[in-house]
């Protein structure tokens, strides 16, 4: 007979069930608890599984941090559910009232100065339910809740925060996570954040302050909620967003055949309006993935970076003879691009997800798209200091992204800034003209959307590709141009995934204790512990868990734990000089860089033990 279930766990589960506003999750937990408590179970392995599941669901609370909340759906404090969302919303609105110097409780009368919160949601399971729960809590706390009218892309919500002057924004989405997950992103603006971070996702110390208020919520039953009273927005916000993206249009060629996939997400109809409205009418949407579907039935993992995720788009591109493939992740804040590459089958060519049916197509690396868009924006940007405001032409990228953007900025007389990973940092850079990170995130219109935006980025990329196509060239030729001017920059990643989360800090400690002395044979000449030093960290950055190594030949490696997955990630970059004007040298440099990068991967694989 198995040992009795701990009484503390039984009490915690029953208390949660009694306070759960959702009959579905409460009944599921009740059935699981009943099975776990059986003295003579009919199916002992099933009981063991139920006990383990309960222990996990009540092992702690789903942590609220700078990424908000994200986790698997289900009952219990360590899952995404209505109870967790209501508590989070209550903590958020109490923080907002405190930040606005309003009474902690509004009383019976709706407070005319209460927090103004705009709320959006995607098409995942329970997203609309969580959004409406948030609206009910905000309204119940004397605030003004503005609910977007339908499932819409995350960039629309980010736009709405600034457009509507909201003190906060909430987006219910798990982005590119598996189907069983959901999440809760928080933006601050309006009267709460008035500097360059107005309208951006939260960073420290906002996250800790909100989390402290969440922790003080006694129960769901204690949270005032209304059954209505919030504002259901119409299509005017979406129309305003589309008009803002249309302002990025430039006259030029539109003769480009594009294949597009929203990967079963919410970007499809908005993307089509953006591209077709700009004159890109030769547009072919992958039919199997065109409609939002929270099951994501045609992909193993709904992330365009994952091998196989855009196979259907590549197959359609081959069928219709496309010039460019574009893809969004499910909430459309990221943009992926694929091109036909004659060198894809040649040894030493840049790597990327390809399949036999793709016939030479490959997805551009995030750093490649970042360089292309960075050069595009830099040509139009105002040099820093030449405008009354100053800093009007700042290009920014994360510390794990390619250093090529810094060289592009310098070549155009612009300023470059490095930030920690995440657009919560990139988008709040003062005077930002363009920002990106290698994980397919690009901010091309920071005055209106202080976050990555896969729709506006797709428009600029399509315009660039069409102009280049009209000249008889490709995006790959533009990358060669950048290599001739700045050297061949090649980047890659290596990850170690862990089932035991304790192995992540242990691995980081081991790398710190015994870092590699060489990278592909070049001695390491600079070793920076990103968690050490002053409060601001190296280069004026906040401290973060990570290690940066630079070798004598300029090879760089950044090792850090993933912020969203159980992984330790290594970001690799090599730079090979290219003789200016020598186009033949680019291919040689590319092969040299590929060989060196493969050697660096092998070095780091040994360090990580994979």
What does this structure look like?
- With 610 residues, the protein is an alpha/beta fold.
- It has four domains: 7-57; 69-231, Alpha-D-Glucose-1,6-Bisphosphate, subunit A, domain 3 (Alpha-D-Glucose-1,6-Bisphosphate, Chain A, domain 3), CATH 3.40.120; 247-486, 3-Layer(aba) Sandwich (Alpha-D-Glucose-1,6-Bisphosphate, Chain A, domain 3), CATH 3.40.120; 487-608, Alpha-D-phosphohexomutase, C-terminal domain (TATA-Binding Protein), CATH 3.30.310.
- The protein has helices at 7-19, 23-37, 44-57, 82-99, 127-140, 154-163, 206-215, 236-246, 268-277, 311-320, 366-380, 404-411, 423-426, 454-470, 475-486, 503-513, 583-608, and strands spanning 69-72, 116-121, 144-147, 168-172, 181-188, 200-201, 231-232, 258-261, 283-285, 324-328, 335-340, 361-363, 394-398, 415-419, 432-437, 441-443, 488-497, 518-519, 522-529, 547-551, 556-561, 567-576.
- The strands form four sheets. Strands 1, 2, 3, 4, 5, 6 and 7 form a seven-stranded mixed beta sheet that branches.
- Strand 4 (168-172) and strand 5 form a beta hairpin.
- The longest helix is centred in the last third of the chain and has 26 residues, at 583-608.
- The protein is globular and about 75 Å long.
- Mean pLDDT is 92; it is low at 345-358, 385-391 and 533-537.
